[in-house]
């Protein structure tokens, strides 16, 4: 079994553990399991996509199906950090796919959302699991959104909820995982 | 003589043209359908007190009454992207279909790339290339913020690009939005005209011609190539197309984007160009209150 990861090429995730040829590499099945178990994202939301590793533990999601081993600068978007005890979704993955999340989503007030996107850690009450959460807030829905024409709108009761990114919740504190380049101060 | 004076014979209502070039541009953003319906972006901007005027020719193009659209929630969520109005023309002209394989030859910083991804419904394969490594990080971060998953970013010289490794023989559609003298950006860059002129245009035309030739050769028969620049210089526009029409299997085709445009030229200085160049379009600042732009649509034959 080969170990590690060839860092300049995009290598397709194996379908499952039986097909794994590179030690420690996440499988497609495990990635779909993770999003379903941790955030309640239905498997059919992610089913159309391909998943790749480039850079140890860095998982990419792509709409495109290209041959294995493509040597390009990027393919789709960075999606998930693996090869560590607790996997961590990227900010952009949380924004793009987090609307489908039904659990481990922490809803923030306007003030808390502003602090979160400024990169600040804050003391917050949360009686769910510790670990990586999707942080969300309410944004004006707009007429089309409530009609569901984007195909991504949540159910009516949460149609205005919008994911901001990923936070790490530990000991009563929500730590913002928004990367420096994505932070904003309103 | 100033750099724009040589265009007086070809620009209708030249005084209005010069006057428009002196005015600052309106602030315009493009709503990104990959992450939100444009209606929702408009509603969310309005909720923050930002006034929005939607452009009739393209309802995703929004004029906003703030200088800093980057400091809004819709920007943070990747629902809007700062993109000048005329910059939204060529992707609309290329008009790819979902599932297509598309090549963006000179993609950074990615405004047109992400618009193409949106038009593809974020499906298929969109290869976004740029030869400038320093500008790739902006391309990548814009694509990610806007939620595009159909984009593969490459760092190659477009003149020597190949489809090798992508599992395809040719692209369905290619955007050749080539490096140019950028005269049409004078309304946002006060120094845009400092180094322009016929000599500069003739120098860069060789590169533009080579990139366009490569774009045509990597497009399947029946596929579409769009050639665009943000300069007024005929040497970089009609002159490049005329040369390529002579010896590549392409022809210019008509298009309409719903903005006022002037036809491409068939004569300039001591040269004459193919009659079909009238199918290309020149977008002047005084016509639609935008920057300057040039765009041509080509169909690739056998």
From TrEMBL, chain A:
It holds the Pfam family DUF7122. It comes from the Archaea. It comes from Halarchaeum rubridurum. InterPro entries: DUF7122. Residues 4-76 form the DUF7122 domain. This is NOL1/NOP2/fmu family ribosome biogenesis protein.
UniProtKB/TrEMBL annotation, chain B:
InterPro entries: MeTrfase_RsmB-F_NOP2_cat, MeTrfase_RsmB-F_NOP2_dom, RCMT, SAM-dependent_MTases_sf. Keywords: Methyltransferase, RNA-binding, S-adenosyl-L-methionine, Transferase. Residues 17-301 form the SAM-dependent MTase RsmB/NOP-type domain. Pfam families: Methyltr_RsmB-F. It comes from the Archaea. S-adenosyl-L-methionine binds at residues 106-112, 130, 157, 177. It comes from Halarchaeum rubridurum. GO terms for biological process: tRNA methylation. This is NOL1/NOP2/sun family putative RNA methylase. PROSITE patterns: SAM_MT_RSMB_NOP (PS51686). Belongs to the class I-like SAM-binding methyltransferase superfamily. RsmB/NOP family. GO terms for molecular function: RNA binding; tRNA (cytidine-5-)-methyltransferase activity. The keyword Transcription regulation does not apply. The active site is at residue 230.
